[in-house]
Design a protein that fits this description.
10 strands, OB fold (Dihydrolipoamide Acetyltransferase, E2P), about 500 residues, 5-stranded mixed barrel, alpha+beta
Length: about 500
């Protein structure tokens, strides 16, 4: 019973965040909801009816969630509004790793005007380069970000996507100039990012493109270097999850550590693998995406190591609540958070069920891989269809043929990049094995993506359909006996 009541608090918390993220209402509305919650609690104390307790806790959770969203800045500060659509010149600090694209770099800069700080996203040429923590001068045209329509007819709320990171304005055709180097804590973070860039440059020396960009995505995250055409092929083939830093990549690292440490007790090996995950996240720059991947991958690792599926589910929910308390806009406007959470939940709850249906497959490796792949893809499918409208028909066979070689590609890429940094003349030689494996991944992706009807574009449908699909999936999971088996270690998060 306590678990059920706790679940209703979390459902209310998420509902409150979602409602306040999508609709604007005042504190008066929250006050009214609080009064209703108090009334439900009083009714429970008198009648002790379960429904009253559920109503009180659900409403309490929703008030906490909505209230947290209302405390988050929602728009560009008034001090900056007169500057919109005009040329500006600001001084500020680079507060995140620059996002390097094919022809531009996107740099998040914290600036100050009339004593009011805010963040702007500068879209600038690739040069001059700037780094995290540096103080820079930025010039350009200040504009508000806008929503846009995707190729499948969906509306992407780009303005809210940026707002979740506290960014409310863009600087178009920006010019940047470094004024002062980083210092303090920012210097440590900057060194991590520079180390990652040095490794990526080593990959570029050792492996021809687009293999180097794929290796960089597998090991350190970031998919922009692949180019839009090849990236679209990874999306169509249902393989885009491998080219970003995700729970899948993290779990490959953890699995490699576990296999090396098979002589140790299982829990000890899991602890060491967990420490390795932390170091891997730091090496990837310790950004929001890598931290999320580390948390999700670490929870899947815990499920595998302990076999305590539902304990891990509770841990996953707690981690999600902590992340939402820190940044509630993730729930409605961060597709990465949404898909990572649902894929992890699907992996933990669905894979033991799916694996029992695959017992005719004698190979434990293929059974484990197929169960993990199916579980994660089933879990994210309703949300993915709602967000993108793109259904990959070839996703399952593509994943089955590509995923087994990803650990090898990561290992060979890591070796090639590391040696290329230390001994540059050896780069082309040590990069050859990685190039062969990465070429296989790329060609397999192209093959599946170019098949007739490789993907189907679905018309837009109401969000309530997505909710009903997840309700049906939850019902199936609840009614299916859960075998006492460990969660497969690999995931496609």
């Amino acid at each position: 019973m306590h678990r059920t009541l706790f679940a209703w608090v979390l459902i209310g918390f998420a509902s409150g965040i979602l409602c306040r993220s999508l609709f604007i209402f005042s504190w008066y509305v929250l006050t009214f909801v609080v009064l209703v919650a108090v009334g439900a609690a009083a009714a429970w104390m008198i009648r002790r009816h379960f429904v009253y307790a559920v109503a009180a806790l659900f409403l309490l959770g929703s008030v906490i969630g909505a209230g947290r969203v209302m405390l988050v800045p929602a728009a560009l500060p008034e001090a900056y509004e007169p500057l919109l659509e005009s040329k500006i010149s600001f001084e500020g600090m680079v507060v995140s790793e620059p996002d390097i694209r094919e022809t531009t770099q996107r740099v998040t800069i914290e600036v100050e005007e009339k004593g009011v700080k805010t963040k702007v996203l500068a879209v600038a040429d690739l040069y001059p380069e700037v780094g995290y923590g540096e103080r820079v001068q930025i010039e350009g045209t200040l504009i508000l970000p806008e929503s846009f329509e995707t190729d499948t007819g969906r509306t992407f709320r780009y303005d809210r996507f940026l707002a979740k990171d506290g960014i409310f304005a863009l600087v178009e055709r920006a010019s940047l100039k470094t004024l002062a180097p980083r210092e303090g804590v920012a210097h440590v973070m900057g060194l991590l990012i520079e180390g990652k860039r040095a490794f990526q440059n080593g990959l570029a020396r050792a492996i021809p493109e687009p293999g180097a960009s794929l290796a960089s995505g597998l090991i350190t995250g970031g998919k922009q270097g692949l180019g839009s055409e090849l990236l679209d092929m990874f999306v169509i083939a249902g393989l885009v999850h491998i080219v970003v830093l995700s729970g899948y990549n993290v779990m490959i690292v953890a699995e490699g550590v576990l296999r090396v440490l098979t002589f140790l007790p299982r829990r000890m090996g899991a602890i060491i693998a967990g420490v390795t995950i932390g170091l891997f996240v730091l090496a990837a720059g310790a950004g929001a995406a890598s931290i999320r991947a580390g948390l999700m991958g670490g929870l899947a690792l815990t499920a595998r190591a302990t076999g305590r599926t539902y304990a891990v589910v509770r841990a996953l929910l707690i981690v999600a609540v902590i992340m939402l308390l820190f940044n509630p806009l993730l729930l409605a406007y961060d597709p990465g958070f949404q898909l990572s959470f649902i894929a992890t939940l699907g992996l933990i709850l669905l894979s033991p069920i799916v694996e029992t249906k695959l017992m005719r497959i004698k190979s434990a490796f293929w059974r484990d891989l197929l169960a993990a792949t199916l579980s994660a893809q089933i879990a994210v499918l309703p949300l993915l269809l709602y967000q993108t409208g793109l259904f990959s028909v070839v996703s399952l066979p593509a994943n089955l043929l590509v995923l087994p070689v990803i650990p090898l590609a990561m290992a060979l890429g890591a070796i090639a990049g590391g040696i290329a940094v230390i001994i540059p003349p050896l780069a082309p030689i040590v990069g050859l094995p990685a190039y062969i494996v990465l070429t296989y991944v790329i060609e397999a992706t192209k093959f599946f993506a170019q098949l007739p009807l490789a993907s189907i574009s679905l018309p837009q449908f109401p969000f309530v359909v997505t909710i009903l699909l997840y309700a049906l999936l939850a019902y199936v999971i609840a009614k299916t006996p859960v075998p006492k088996t460990r969660v497969p270690l690999r995931s496609t998060l």
